[in-house]
Amino acid sequence: MTSFSTNTDIPRHGPPALVARTFGWSVLAALAAFLINNVLVVWFGFPGLRGLTAGGSAGAMVNLALYVIAIGAAIAMVMTTRDRALRWDAHMVHSFNVYLIRALFWSVFLVGLTDASIAFLRSENLSEVLFGGAIANNFTRASWVGPWVHVPLIVASFVIALFTRTLGFTWLALLIVAAELLIVISRFVFSYEQALMGDLVRYWYAALFLFASAYTLYDDGHVRVDILYAGLGRTTRGYLNAQGTILLGMTTAWVILVIAFNGKQSIVNAPVRNFEISQAGPFGMYIKYQMAAFIGLFAITMLIQFVSYFFESVADKRDEPGHREPNQSSAH
Fold first, then answer.
1. What share of the chain is helix, strand, coil (3-state, %, to 5)?
2. pLDDT in tens for each of the 332 residues of the chain?
3. Residue 243 CB contacts under 8 Å (≥ 6 apart), including other chains
4. I want to staple 97 with a disulfide (CB 3.0 to 4.6 A). Which of 131, 178, 200, 304 is the partner?
5. Which residues 6+ apart lie within 8 Å of 128 measured at CB?
6. Contact 313, 245 (CB under 8 A)
7. Is 84 in a helix, a strand, or coil?
8. Do residues 45 and 60 lie in contact, with contact meaning Cβ atoms separated by under 8 Å?
9. What residues are paired with 84 via a beta bridge?
10. Which residues contact 89 (CB under 8 A, 6 or more apart)?
11. Residue 17 three-state SS
């Protein structure tokens, strides 16, 4: 796997595309406001936009103001950079998404190995022998392992991602194979198996397929069922891709986001707030809440990449220079 590198051939300036750029950056601004509001609603008790229908409380006005400020900032940014090329915008959005995905892969790598090790110590009753009773007791509490073990590792992952340039797809796939092989050997050779072993494989599998989806879109690697598309010209394909990105791609991502983060008891917020674990209890890994969060992270990374794809498609429709063929991408 080659490292991700910056494409210096992308034009930084081009003919104004105020409508397309305003729409794309407004979508990203709305996403940022949506996620901030979710934190305010879930962790700080704000009413969210629903509070507007109940008399318009101060908290609800704050939630609404975040959207207004975010979209206003996006519009202001576009108006002050009128000559910025669409392809350069697409490149910047994609580069941020690459960093985000790279950080997520480091997170699942570090958390996976660490939590599997802790689960093994719990299963074999070695925690107290090695660390004493107090720490051994903490290792059995997901509400302690999550904030004091997982969160620091995730923060470290985002720092590590600043200094690395590999997306980690190949290595994570190799780790999954190694984890599967360990299960086979331990089960059929040594008649030994723990729930944590299957948990680790599922954890890495979920991360591989959900987090790699956005980069697969960048590489145009998703299955495309078409009859006429391949024979169309670049400008026509750009028009169809731009429309499809809005009507199908962004819409789907937003539906997932709204369902996943729909209040404190939603399918993502509830498990994360409670650091939910699987039914295997102390014999398994304490990462079920993270796998629930993967659903939301999948939608976030896909929406960001759809915005980048939209910018590229509009640039193709306008027949602007700097077109990138998917098979010439810099990383896989």
1. 75, 0, 25
2. 334 444 557 889 889 999 999 999 999 999 999 999 999 999 988 888 877 776 667 888 898 999 999 999 999 999 999 999 999 999 999 999 999 999 999 999 999 999 999 999 998 889 888 888 899 999 999 999 999 999 999 999 999 999 988 777 788 899 999 999 999 999 888 888 888 899 999 999 999 999 988 888 887 766 666 677 777 888 988 999 999 999 999 999 999 999 999 989 999 999 999 999 988 777 899 999 999 999 999 999 999 999 999 999 999 999 888 888 775 444 43
3. none
4. 304
5. 136
6. yes
7. strand
8. no
9. 13
10. 21, 24, 25, 308, 311
11. coil
284, amino acid identity: G
List the beta bridge partners of residue 152: none
For 132: left if phi > 0, alpha if psi spans -120 to 50, otherwise beta; the answer is left
Instruction: Count CA within 13 A, CB hemisphere, residue 200.
Output: 29
User: How far is residue 3 CA from its own chain's centroid?
Assistant: 20
- How far, in Å, CA of 326 to CA of 219, rounded? 5
The position carrying tokens 């000559």 is 83
Instruction: Please give the single-letter amino acid code of residue 49.
Output: L
- Could you give the CA distance from residue 226 to residue 160 in angstroms, rounded to a whole number? 41
What span, in angstroms and rounded, lies between the C-alpha atoms of 199 and 261? 24
One-letter amino acid of 197: M
